Amino acid sequence: MKNIDFFKTIILAISIVIAGYFIGNLLKNGKEYDRSVNVKGLSEKQVMADLAVWPINITLAGNDLKVLKDEIEKQSFEVKNFFLNQGFTEEELTIGIVNISDSRAQLYSSGNENREFRYIANADFTIRTAAIEKLQNALAESLNLISKGILISSKNSWQPIQYSFTGLNALKPAMIEEATKNAREVAEKFALDSNSKVSKIKSANQGLFTINDLDQNTSYIKIVRVVSTIEYQLQD
């Protein structure tokens, strides 16, 4: 009987030692797991815009409705031919409808009866193309229309041509890889200073991709940027 009690005591003692070992090891591993560093990795690319949109219009004023109609149609024809001669296709050029308004028909606008011109005519055009350089040349050459008595105006005076970049999906994999590599380099520098080593990724946040103009004067050059936030485990 005493031998049985003795063996029970030995088994209980061994169980306590083993349990203590695993609990201690668990706490140790948990503590090591809690050691981490949170860093940010940056990737930037400078790219050329691959799509340009130039919305323009012609505005004429007059008192003879028929003469005004004929003139706005004539100028619209000249503008269309100008862009076709610049090498643009029919698909790249969208021609809006001609709109003529009668100032005297605007019942709630005061002073219309004293205006010099009764009728205002507008014709809209939109050039949408991937040929960026060709459109920039057309912008410079458009001054030649003045010699024909045609004055075109951009709907957006401070930025006549709207440039955009549509090839983001092709850049994403390489940029994410670069941002991750950059983040690990930062983490390794931190680990070196703290006598540690960088281990596995504990958590990661890709971040949002942004596309901005290089500056106000060169909006056809874009800066694509992404910042990834990554938490690495550290170990001795």
Q: Could you walk me through the main structural features you see in this protein, from its secondary elements to its overall organization?
A:
The model has no long low-confidence stretch (mean pLDDT 83). With 236 residues, the protein is α+β, with helices and mostly antiparallel strands. The strands form 2 sheets. Strands 2, 3, 4, 5 and 6 form a 5-stranded antiparallel β-sheet that branches. Strands 1, 7, 8 and 9 form a 4-stranded antiparallel β-sheet that branches. The radius of gyration is 35 Å and the shape is elongated. The chain is 38% helix and 34% strand. The protein folds into 3 domains: 1-34; 36-50 and 165-236, 2-Layer Sandwich (Translation Initiation Factor IF3), CATH 3.30.110.170; 52-162, Alpha-Beta Plaits (2-Layer Sandwich). The longest helix has 33 residues, at 2-34. A hairpin with a 7-residue loop joins strand 8 (209-213) and strand 9 (221-235).
Total DSSP helices: 4
Top-tier CATH class of the largest domain:
Alpha Beta
Radius of gyration: 35 Å
Q: Which second-level CATH architecture of the largest domain applies?
A: 2-Layer Sandwich
Beta-strand content estimate: 25-35%
- CATH third-tier fold name of the largest domain: Alpha-Beta Plaits
| Overall pLDDT level | 83
Could you state the order of secondary-structure elements as H and E?
A: HEEHEEHEEHEEE
Structural class, please? alpha+beta
Q: Strand tally, please? A: 9
Count of discrete domains: 3
Question: Separation of termini?
Answer: 51 Å
